[in-house]
Amino acid sequence: MSEFEQFALDLADASGRVIRKYFRADLNFEDKADNSPVTVADRLAETVIREMIKDKYPTHDILGEEQGFKNTGSRWKWVIDPIDGTRSFVSGMPIFGTLISLLENNVPQLGIIDIPILHERWFSESGEDCFFYSSDVDKKKKVCKVSGKEKISQAILYSTDPKMFNISQKPLFDRVSSKVKLPRFGGDCYNYGLLASGFIDLVIEADMKIYDLMALIPVVESSGGIISDWNGSTSFDGNWDGCVLAAASEELHKQAISLLN
After folding, report:
1. For the chain, where do the domains classified as CATH 3.30.540.10 start and end?
2. 3-class secondary structure per residue, 72-91
3. What homologous superfamily is domain 3-143 in, according to CATH?
4. In this structure, is the dihedral angle defined by the CA atoms of residues 79, 234, 149 and 156, taken in order, positive or negative?
5. Between the CA of residue 237 and those of 105, 190, 211, 221, 241, what are the distances in Å?
6. pLDDT digits (tens, 9 = 90+) for 122-168
7. What is the pLDDT of residues 20-68, one digit of tens each?
8. For helices 250-260 and 169-177, what crossing angle results, to 10°?
């Protein structure tokens, strides 16, 4: 395990301790400009992560959902979403997560999906295996591997919310959904961990932001999966439209791309 990966795991531990204090508490939340909710737990968790990064790597850039971009011009950039799934958090649903990634020259080098209430975690560093860890179960790291399913008629498809699709995207999503064995909604970032562990086969989403995505890329790819936009591009630059497709095999990915276009 590299110094960066160990530090990222420490970040997840620290943010998880903050978040668990507020879960299912009597907590008010505000609506941001995009109508998404934010709580004191989101803000404090991001503050803890940012302060730890500043202390350890003061020259690194930091991009977070709640506090924006600290740009020092470094080739290293931490991208964090303190609570991915705040709607789940405020409604008492434990399937939400903290996303932490480190980019080198805008290419994600490591990613963590931490599920603080369930004490589950997926993490991967570029070029290495993806691991799953549950402190409440066997307390051992398990290497993750996607299902490898190739037929869309046998696939399990997840998406967080049907409302994330706009009027032109929803019919395309429905086209794929009508072909799979089992479509389901919910899950937020948990879906990508389940895909990495081989439990589900497709995730199709829209209206995503860069801090929603970067940590997912190493986790999915290191497990043998494919993650792209709906056109198959893996260039998530300024022209990216927020659409994401993750698949458990190249063949399944091709079939979904065909249906989405």
Report:
1. 3-143
2. CCCCEEEEEEEEECHHHHHC
3. Fructose-1,6-Bisphosphatase, subunit A, domain 1 (3.30.540.10)
4. positive
5. 12, 24, 12, 18, 9
6. 999 877 899 999 987 667 789 999 999 999 999 999 999 999 999 99
7. 999 998 777 777 666 677 788 999 999 999 999 999 999 999 999 888 8
8. 130
Distances (CA, A) of 13 to 130, 148, 179, 223: 18, 31, 40, 23
Rounded to the nearest 10 degrees, the angle between the axes of helix 3-22 and helix 40-56 is 150
| Cα–Cα distance, 14 to 226 (Å, whole number) | 30
pTM: 0.94
Q: For residue 173, is pLDDT > 70?
A: yes
Distance between CA 122 and CA 120 in Å, rounded?
7
DSSP state string for 205-221: E-S--HHHHTTHHHHHH
Q: Which CATH number fits domain 152-260: 3.90.1530.10, 3.30.2350.10, 3.40.190.80, 3.40.50.740?
A: 3.40.190.80
Q: How far is CA 169 from CA 20, 138, 176, 259, in A?
A: 35, 41, 11, 12
* C-alpha span between 192 and 227 (Å, rounded): 10
β-bridge mates for residue 98, sequence order: 114
As annotated, the residues of the chain forming the CATH 3.40.190.80 domain(s) are 152-260
pLDDT higher than 90, residue 102: yes
